[in-house]
Amino acid sequence: AQSVTQPDIHITVSEGASLELRCNYSYGATPYLFWYVQSPGQGLQLLLKYFSGDTLVQGIKGFEAEFKRSQSSFNLRKPSVHWSDAAEYFCAVGPLSGGYNKLIFGAGTRLAVHP
Amino acid sequence: EAGVAQSPRYKIIEKRQSVAFWCNPISGHATLYWYQQILGQGPKLLIQFQNNGVVDDSQLPKDRFSAERLKGVDSTLKIQPAKLEDSAVYLCASSLVTDTQYFGPGTRLTVL
User: Fold this and answer.
1) Residue B73, by phi and psi: left (phi above 0), alpha (psi -120 to 50) or beta?
2) Strands (DSSP E) found in B3-50
3) What is the pLDDT of residues A1-54, one digit of tens each?
4) What's the CA gap between A103 and A54, in Å, rounded?
5) Interatomic CA distance for residues A37 and A39, integer angstroms
């Protein structure tokens, strides 16, 4: 069955430190992969997406993610975290085939940033 | 460009009451989605429309939930009657036919 696992429920980092949020997926074909961020009381904002090509994807707000097919992973990284990055981060996988566009989300990782 | 609009932002009801949520997608987006996000979980797709037609409603509890998208633009999601376990954030998203989904701010429903 298709699924997305985000192993870390909560992560706390100091401002200026580097960040890596993990995402593993189970999917029968080459997936389309997404990272979304959700601030309190807000909807989901797309950070970046991987459809094909270069496995290192650049996104907004200084985030990047790397697709590793052998590890079924799509980890999100940022070299230096800002206090405004505190939010919940969701990894998602989608089929994008046959006219269907269903996304399957992980349970999310809540990021706290210490000053 | 205006984003996905949803209303109301918050709703509190008693169990067994009915409630409706409204969504206006990004102009020109043919595909519209309703997701349910229970506290501590990722969003789960309830129903997907392409223009006026339903593409996927496999996870919609059809005994109490209904949704429509008249004229291929706005959509309404209804719950009747509500149960305690329906307390969640209901997110609407839209996309071009098969492309990135853009989300609205959501409606937070509390069922007492």
Assistant:
1) alpha
2) 5-7, 10-13, 19-24, 31-37, 44-50
3) 788 999 999 999 999 999 999 999 988 777 889 999 999 878 899 999 998 888
4) 22
5) 7
Name residue A78's beta-bridge partners.
A19
CA distance A99 to B59: 18
How far apart are the two ends of chain A, measured CA to CA in Å?
Answer: 41
Residue identified by tokens 């940022």 is A78
> Does B100 sit within 8 Å of A46, measured CB to CB?
yes
Beta bridge partner(s), residue A44: A38
- What is the C-alpha to C-alpha distance for residues B26 and B75, in angstroms, rounded to an integer? 12
A90 interfacial to chain B (CB closer than 8 Å): yes
Residue B25: is its pLDDT beyond 90? yes
Inspect the interface and report whether the beta carbons of B56 and A100 lie closer than 8 Å.
yes
In angstroms and rounded to an integer, the radius of gyration of the C-alpha atoms of chain B is 13
Q: Per DSSP, what are the bridge partners of residue B109? A: B11, B88
Reported as a single tens digit per residue, the pLDDT across B43-99 is 999 999 988 899 889 899 999 999 999 888 999 999 999 999 999 999 999 998 667
Which token pair is A35?
Answer: 């990272």
Asked if the peptide bond before residue A7 counts as cis, ω within 30 degrees of 0, the response is no
Q: Rounded to an integer, what distance in angstroms lies between the CA atom of residue B44 and that of residue B27?
A: 24
DSSP annotation of A60: G
**Chain B residues with CB-CB distance to A36 below 8 A:** 103
